[in-house]
């Protein structure tokens, strides 16, 4: 009977470990692409950001995050406003992630733990970033969809970037009476300002 329980236990845990390892391998490759871009001194700041933006847009579930962040305002917007918002939000997200990763570009890191949450079908991957004063844990939430992986959230010191963005955007939407069309104007201007700071 004990052997049967052990076999059942292995049959449940081994696929989860395999999923977690596969997701970690994928994530390391994508992180290294971004960090290597920062180390490439022959690239202009603009070329570097555009390459990093492509990588982030391809690997983050930007549309899903954007809809969640917009809350009820998403439902009340027309098709063109939604399309414009997705475009502006993806750039906003790329600018935020690129700025954060730039701060870690000259530090060493390792993926120290990965766990597959079978209930939510999400892999949680802990990344430890080392610096002169200690280390910081960043947790990536990765989901597989249609045979490829996407980052659906990023937790820095246990603080979710998606939840933080929802709170931030809710405050902005409140100031424009929850109009997604008016938020687009604000987002466009913010993006242009952040972009100029990043490439100069």
Number of helices: 7
CATH architecture assignment? Roll
CATH fold-level topology: Nuclear Transport Factor 2, Chain: A
Fraction of residues in β-strands: 15-25%
Oligomer: single chain
The residue-averaged pLDDT reads 88
Physical arrangement of strands within the biggest beta sheet: 1-2-3-4-5
Outline the biggest β-sheet. 5 strands, antiparallel
The domain tally reads 1
End-to-end distance: 68 Å
Write down the overall geometry: globular
Percent helix, as a range, is: 55-70%
Q: CATH-wise, what's the superfamily?
A: Tgt2/MlaC
Describe the structure.
This protein is α+β, with helices and mostly antiparallel strands and 200 residues long. It has a single domain, classed as Tgt2/MlaC (Nuclear Transport Factor 2, Chain: A, Roll). The protein contains 7 helices and 5 strands; from the N terminus they run αααααβββββαα. It has helices at residues 2-39, 45-59, 62-70, 73-76, 79-104, 161-175, 180-199, and strands spanning 108-117, 122-131, 134-145, 148-156, 159-160. It has a 5-stranded antiparallel β-sheet.
């Amino acid at each position: 009977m004990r052997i049967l329980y052990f076999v059942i236990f292995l049959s449940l845990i081994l696929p989860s470990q395999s999923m977690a390892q596969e997701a970690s391998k994928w994530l390391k490759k994508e992180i290294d692409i971004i960090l290597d871009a920062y180390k490439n001194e022959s690239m202009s700041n603009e070329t570097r950001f555009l390459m990093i933006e492509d990588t982030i847009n391809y690997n983050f579930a930007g549309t899903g995050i954007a809809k969640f962040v917009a809350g009820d305002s998403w439902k009340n917007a027309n098709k063109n406003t939604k399309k414009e918002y997705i475009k502006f939000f993806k750039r906003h997200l790329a600018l935020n992630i690129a700025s954060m990763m730039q701060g870690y570009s000259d530090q060493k890191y390792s993926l120290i733990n990965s766990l597959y949450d079978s209930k939510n079908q999400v892999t949680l991957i802990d990344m430890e970033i080392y610096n002169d004063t200690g280390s910081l844990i960043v947790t990536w939430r990765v989901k597989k969809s249609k045979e490829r992986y996407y980052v659906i959230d990023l937790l820095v010191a246990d603080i979710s970037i998606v939840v933080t963005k929802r709170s931030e955007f809710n405050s902005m939407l409140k100031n424009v009476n929850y109009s997604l069309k008016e938020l687009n104007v604000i987002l466009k201007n913010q993006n242009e300002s952040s972009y100029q700071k990043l490439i100069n």
